[in-house]
Design a protein that fits this description.
By secondary structure, the protein is of the alpha+beta class. It has a single domain, classed as Histidine kinase-like ATPase, C-terminal domain (Heat Shock Protein 90, 2-Layer Sandwich), CATH 3.30.565.10. The strands form two sheets. A five-stranded antiparallel beta sheet has the order 1-4-5-7-6, covered by helices on one side. A two-stranded antiparallel sheet has the order 2-3.
Amino acid sequence: MTESQRLQEYAAADPVAAPGLAEEEFTEAATDHTVWSCVGNLTAVRSIRARVRDVLEGVRLPGGPVPAGSIDDAELAASELATNALLHSRSGQVGGVMTLSIRTERGLVRVAVADQGEKSAEAGSDGELRDADGDYGRGKLIIESCTSRSGEYRGEGTHVAWFEIDLPES
């Protein structure tokens, strides 16, 4: 199957079935709040990186724009969360969807990626086995190094990974 055929197959995802965020994500007042769902395909990580950058470059907080270094860090950490969602959840399987949430408020950027939970057993794996020395397991270290806080939580059929970046006082 060619890459374009796989992309067409992924494009059949139902955006209504997109994973949701917990109610707590919406409880505090925010300067800006963007929620966006995308099909979990080969271009999703690039799309999420671009969406994070575009949103944060357009935000004007009371202290001024979001600093370029914070935008770079948010973009990198968001791409790690999206990659993990594709690799480790049903969002990366045919018909998968993931949801990106970006909140900004005075002194803080919060980004969350909601996926569709663990891969189903009947879907099988792609045949690749992880080695102990493979290129896995560094995502959390990257996220910890470029964010102020991070975490995750699970709901019914949903897994949400998030991070926050404290913005410098102006």
